[in-house]
Predict the structure.
Amino acid sequence: MYRLTVLMIEVEQPEGLSSRKLMVEGAKQNVLTAYSGDEGLELFAKNDIHVVVIHSKLTNPGAKEVVEKIRQKSRDIPIIGLSPNDADMGPVTMTISSFEPNKLVEVVKEYARQMLGR
């Protein structure tokens, strides 16, 4: 079975990232995690990423800058912004409340259906 690779970029809050990561993995997707924008960009460059999930509170570089750099390399990749307050993260595909992990899983599953033709 083919799985999407989801890159999750978030500030280091293992309890929050772990629950979201576990939920997406539970939806039968591969998850790579990064705790900084630089680490996320490095993982993006070195791996075949299908969906990016990025938190608005990311710093050094910030979420908006990371999104813009990813968009320079891939205009079509879905980028899901996680934000507790609809922060401006640049050209994301959509923004979801960071407090709605079930919604995140639904969206990732929908992208999997679209990309994998199911």
The first strand starts at residue 5 and ends at 9. The helical segments are 14-26, 37-46, 63-73, 101-116. The chain is about 40% helix and 20% strand. The mean pLDDT is 87.
